[in-house]
Amino acid sequence: EVQLVESGGGLVQAGGSLRLSCAASGFTFDDYVIGWFRQAPGKEREGVSCISSSGGGIYYADSVKGRFTISSDNAKNTVYLQMNGLKPDDTAVYYCAYHPYGSTWYCLGGVMDYWGEGTLVSVSS
Q: In the 3-class helix/strand/coil scheme, how is the chain assigned residue by residue?
């Protein structure tokens, strides 16, 4: 049973930082793509960042380039999203998602097979 559990969300002021974690289980952590997505109230879900074990490597949405950093620790079956310079527009529920094929192609298209329950990030001005 594949499970993804996000953590690390919270309330921060603009300019602050948070680190999100996605703890994965139920699959071998050697061929995958994991992405971070977010959805604000009344808005569509959007892709934030993706990381793959092979192929495309790392992807960032234009809105977060230079501020967010995605990384993985395969030994811990965990993917992280370091978020610096947070803005009120970053406020959303953040989800991690998984596809067993190690290519960002699936992440870029949002066609991920498994999703976590999300963690809330709230940024005040």
A: CCEEEEECCEEEECCCCEEEEEEEECCCCCCCEEEEEEECCCCCCEEEEEEECCCCCEEECCCCCCCEEEEEEHHHCEEEEEECCCCHHHCEEEEEEEECCCCHHHHHCCCCCEECCCEEEEEEC
Percent of the chain at pLDDT exceeding 70: 98
pLDDT tens digit sequence for 36-89: 999 999 999 999 999 998 655 899 999 999 999 999 988 899 999 999 999 999
Judge whether 60 and 82 are in contact, CB under 8 Å. Answer: no
Q: How far is CA 45 from the centre of its chain?
A: 12
CB atoms inside a 10 Å sphere around CB 41: 7
Measured over the CA atoms of residue 8, residue 85, residue 71 and residue 107, the dihedral's sign is positive
